[in-house]
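<discrete_fold_record>
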Amino acid sequence: MEIKINDQDLPGLYQSADSSSLKEQKKYFKGIAYYLILLIIAALFAFLSDSQEYPIFKIISTVLFLATLSITIWLKVSRPDDIWYNGRAVAESVKTRSWRWMMRTEPYFDCEKVEEMRKHFINDLKTILRQNESLIGKLGIEASIEDPITDKMVEVRKLSLQERFDLYRKERITNQALWYTSKAKFNKRKSSIWFWISVGLHIVAIILLLISIYQVHVKLPIAVIAVAASSVLTWVQAKKKQ
């Protein structure tokens, strides 16, 4: 019977850390996205306010800038990016330890008393969590002992050396390589799209600047385009962390 290792076959700490990491990652990028969008809209209303007799557009622009300030403070105080990084680090550390335990490799070698290896593994999970203190508040230290060793892990550990070797090569090495290759291609396509959007906005800004040289009395949204271009660049830089 072919054995497959899925996320639910790994310890509860892995699933908790992975889920927390993905959740905080989404929060972080949503915060950045809202900040940049509101910044562009605020710049647009500030531009439009110059041609308005009433201050409504200036008021709207001020409110939007206050909103972007609030988002900046929230990102600084809540630090979703820290929890994202630490959650990812914990999840990957737990996964590595889990595979070592299943494969009976260092430090979980064959032992007559399997219970000793269980205790050793659980203590290692607690140590991993303690080394990433920002996650303890999110997950709690109890997360390290929630389903620490699943039935599938025990089943794999009982396999012969050759069976474990074949399983590791397929489920760990090959699958991981395929995942990273696919992710790299996807990120490269997305990065290319945003790059050309940034180039397009810069070209528009240059054209508007050239027009303003000859049309001195025409008010053009050059500052708005510049904010949009810098926002795209900020977004691209933020996505590089992913």
Observations:
- The chain is about 80% helix and 0% strand.
- The helical segments are 12-49, 56-78, 80-103, 114-130, 133-139, 151-157, 161-214, 222-239.
